[in-house]
Amino acid sequence: MAYIQVIGGLVLLVFAADFMVRGSISLAQRMGVSTLIIGLTVVAFGTSAPELVVGVDAVLTGVPTLALGNVVGSNIANIWLVVGFPAVVVPFMCNAKRFTHNMMIMLFSTAVFIGFAFTGVFTYWTGLVLLAMLAGFIYFTSRQREDRETLERVLCDMEGLPEKPDSYRVSWALIIGGLIGLVVGAHILVQGSVVIAREMGVSEAVIGLTLVALGTSIPELVTAVVAAARNHCDVAIGNVIGSNIFNLLGIIGVSSQLGDIPVPEGFLKFDLWVMALASLTLLPYAVFGRRIGRLSGLMFCGAYLAYITVVASGASGMDGINNFIGKI
C-alpha cells in the first residue's frame, strides 16, 4: 500500500502541476500579462511546484529531513539525469553561453546553501535570506534583454501556450483543481515515503534523496526530452538551472518558515558535496557552449546511478561508498 501511495502521489503531483500551469497561463493571457512574466513566474513555479508542496507537507508532517533530501536529490537528478538522459537520445547541439550568468548564480546559491547547512539547521531567518536571494534572481533575470527574447521566441512551442486561452471559468477550475491535487498528492507521497523508510530501516532523508527526488524531477525530465527533440536545448538547460535555483532558495526558504529543518550529518559529509560536484560538471557546457553529446550524457547518467546506489546502500559518506564496494 505504501508503494501504491508513493506512485499515486507522484502521478497526481505531475498531472496537478500541469493543470495548474495550464489554467494559470490561460488566466494570465486573459488578463493581458506578457509572455515574459508568464515564463518567469507561472512556468518556472509550475515545474518546481511538486517539490515545493512536498517540502511544505514534509515539514508540517514532522519529517523535515525529507524536504531537505528532496531538494538536494532533485538538484543532483536535474543535472546528471535530466540533462544526461536526453543527451543520450538526442545530443545537445547548441550554444548555451547566454546562461553563464544564471549558471554562476546557481553555483553561488549552492555555496550559500551549503554554508547555511553547516550551521546544522535551516531556520526561519535562514529561509528569509534564501527567499530574498530568490527575489533578487527573478528581478535580475527579468532585466536581461537576451533572456526576454529567448523566452518569447520558444515559450509558446515548449510550454504549449494556447493561441486562444481558456475561459475564466475553465482557467479557475484548472487552477483550483491543480492546487487541490498538489496538496493531496504531496500528502499521500509523504505518508507513503515515511512508511517505506521505516520498513526499510532507513531515514526519511534517504527516501527524499532517492525515491521522492527522482519522482518530483519528472516534469523537468519531460521538458528536457521535448526540448532536445525540438532542438530547443537552451530551454532544457535554462529550465534545469532555474529549477535548481528555485529548489535551493524557494523550497527551503518557504518550508523553513513553517518549521526548522535540521541537517543530518551524512549530508554535511557527502550529499551536499555531490550536489556541488554535479553543479560544477555543468559549468564547462554553460560557459564555453560545449556540445553535450552521447558520451557526456552516458557519463552523467552513470554518475547519477552510482550516487543512487551509494545512497540506497543505507549509509552516507564514506560508509556508504564502503558498503557499496563491499556488495560488489
SS content category: mainly alpha
**CATH topology label:** A middle domain of Talin 1
Helix content: over 70%
Strand order of the largest sheet: 1-2
- Counting structural domains, the number is 1
CA-CA gap between termini: 31 Å
Q: What's the number of extended β-strand segments?
A: 2
Shape designation: globular
- Figure out the total of helices: 15
The overall pLDDT, averaged over residues, is 77
Topology (SSEs and partners):
Blueprint: H1 2-30, H2 35-61, H3 64-80, H4 84-89, H5 100-117, E1 121-122, H6 124-142, H7 145-159, H8 168-200, H9 204-216, H10 218-229, H11 233-255, E2 261-262, H12 265-281, H13 283-288, H14 294-312, H15 317-327
Antiparallel strand pairs: 1-2
Helix pairs in contact: 1-2, 1-8, 2-3, 2-7, 2-8, 2-11, 3-9, 3-11, 3-12, 3-14, 5-6, 5-11, 5-12, 6-11, 8-9, 10-11, 14-15
Describe the fold and architecture.
The chain has 328 residues and is mostly helical. It has one domain (2-327): Up-down Bundle (A middle domain of Talin 1). Helix content is 81%, strand content 1%. It contains 15 helices and 2 strands. The protein has helices at residues 2-30, 35-61, 64-80, 84-89, 100-117, 124-142, 145-159, 168-200, 204-216, 218-229, 233-255, 265-281, 283-288, 294-312, 317-327; strands at 121-122, 261-262. A two-stranded antiparallel sheet has the order 1-2. Helix 1 packs antiparallel against helix 8 (168-200), helix 3 (64-80) packs antiparallel against helix 11 and helix 5 (100-117) packs parallel to helix 11 (233-255). It is globular and about 50 Å long. The model is unreliable at 320-328 (pLDDT under 50).
